[in-house]
Amino acid sequence: EQAKQTLDKILKISPNHKKSLTLYGVILYAQGDIKGAQKYLHGIVDPEKNSKELTQLYVMTQLKLDNASEVLTMLEDTITTEESDEILTLYFLAALNQQQTEKAKFALKRIEKLFPNSEKPILLSSHYYSKIDPAEHEKALDILQQGLKDNPSSSHLQTAYLKKLIVLKKDEEADQFVQQLQKQENSDIETQLLVGKYQLYQKQ
Length: 204
Hints:
Elements: H1 2-13, H2 18-30, H3 34-41, H4 52-64, H5 68-75, H6 85-97, H7 101-114, H8 120-131, H9 137-150, H10 155-167, H11 171-183, H12 189-201
Helix pairs in contact: 1-2, 2-3, 3-4, 4-6, 5-6, 6-7, 7-8, 8-9, 9-10, 11-12
């Protein structure tokens, strides 16, 4: 709040001071004021000049305000050379939101190429087949299942797979999967929490 008071004084003297506008926007975003953050950051964030973190924050405000088309326009010139998995993921989500599947595929391929050993391409690929029109939910489930074969201890893949089983109303398979997780030796806290959440969901 003290920082905002100081920035208000600066902006009264110099309303277009970019650093002050940027910092004000970042503060508002941190306080949960997404519309306020967008107002201060609009028109001053340039992916070619600003830091990855600031670009990412601004893109997140746009997506939360359902401005996916503006995200695509903003990142269009830099996406072919982009190497940040966070920004590529946000571009992917914006493209899917607009049903621009070729652009979503391009971002996904960039992530697969840059981060071949990450679980993120698996999660995003499954998400892709869940969101295209018409959706291919069984294919999305198969991708997660294959990912778990290669990385059975990944809590992110475990969570995504269990959620998919629940959405598809595969109750028996979901029960069996949770039983497998319970039997895992030395499972991490996230896996144990997932089992607990499922049991609460089942009113156990």
